[in-house]
Amino acid sequence: MAILGSLIKGAIDLKDKLTPDANPVEEQKKVLYQLLETAKDTSFGKHYNFKEILTHVDIRTAFAEAVPYHDYDKMNVEWWSKLHKGEKNVTWPGSPSYFALSSGTTGKTSKRIPVTDEMIEAIRAAGIQQVTALANFDLEADFYEKEIMMLGSSTDLQERDGHLEGEISGISASNIPFWFKGYYKPGEDIAKIDNWDDRVKTIAENAKTWDIGALSGIPSWMELMMQEVIEHHGVATIHDIWPNLQVYTSGGVAFQPYEKSFNKHLARPITVIDTYLASEGFIAFQQGPETDAMKLVTDNGIYFEFVPFKPEYINPDGSLTQDAPVVMLEDVELDQDYALIMSTVSGAWRYLIGDTIEFTDIEKAEIKITGRTKFFLNVVGSQLSVNKMNTAIGEIEEEYDVEIPEFTLAAVRIDEEFHHHWYLGTTADLNDKEVAQKLDEALKDANKNYKVARSKALKGVKVTTIDPTLFHDWNEHNKKKGGQVKMERVMDEDKFSVWETFVKERS
């Protein structure tokens, strides 16, 4: 009998039962007050007069009226760059212990996002909330005695100007609580291996020595790791190596496009739990099996605002217009895409993280990630979000019984007329013209704006199917392999031209 597992499961169940029902709106009011109070004497706080904002009855409205929207470039040029020159108390008291490096999916160079000790604690606390929520998934007691494979970036952080730098998954893994280290795999030594291929090879070599019950990481790279382990040991599925694998904690991107190809590596279904950890903080996690939506972490170091994601509020580079209206948590609506705005204990203020979300349950503050502001395809009024793209690709997978884990597209001019050119990653032998027609029909059914665009400026759809490994090769070619790297779903014409040349050279 799993005695330790039963004790842990019992403690989690009890904590879940004793935790009072939350009021996300009231929690958010409290978080904003704490943020402003703590940062009022920083350079940023003085510049935007946080002390005066705190005197208002409605500090949320006063805050929104006083402080402009910031994206990374604006925040970094005007404020965070001062931290690199040794200044303190810039946007948060003191100096950050870490900087999270994030090139994201569109950046040419790494962003350097401050991560304070308060943020490390907030991420840890949100992680504990997520563990507590496991009580809702009806897992067997022995699950709580198994090890967890966390496939993130290297934990070999680089020292620079008195702080440490690395990707957020590596920073988080290097700060795991002492009591968790016995469960954490691949362990500190392997996690420090900087080269992705070497790290995965070492994981494969050691895989049989571990009793893995859960996986955690971005789907595309988790698939490659499982494939390496399976091939190294000459077995059929990952369950032949880790028979007690029960849970996969996904994160960073929507799991839907990867589901079919991911499941091919398994002998039986496992529980998939979505999480939303970004370089800027632990944003949301899935609370139970009845939904695949995630609950915003509304009580822990991050204050959220929401901007309706409409073309008139979005600049060509994906940033927001300063006159874009903001919506507070209690006023959001279902079936509406919002650009997510955050203010945090790392000193980000009214910060456009670059993701779009929609609410599935307003009272519980549950959301789904729908895409990226820069991946919103609206060159000719088609208004396609990544969520709509994922849904259409899912229909193609079902129609042809194939796996399409990766894709990218652009609005391109063919004979001076706009077309959407899709590259679909699949090993199946498909008729590209036929798939293009099916994809076009699926998008027309799902999106009225797309249907209107197809009757006017958007003249056609082109599909090119390629080997899925080319998407990974592209990321590696751009020095973005492993860890938290995500494939860009939408490209502009110039980058798409470079992509097409790359594909032709590698095919």
TrEMBL record:
Domain GH3 middle, chain residue ranges per copy: 297-363
Residue ranges occupied by any GH3 C-terminal domain in the UniProt entry: 391-493
InterPro entries, per the entry: GH3, GH3_C, GH3_M
Signal peptide annotation: none
Name assigned to this protein: GH3 auxin-responsive promoter family protein
Gene source species: Gangjinia marincola
Taxonomy of the source species: Bacteria, Pseudomonadati, Bacteroidota, Flavobacteriia, Flavobacteriales
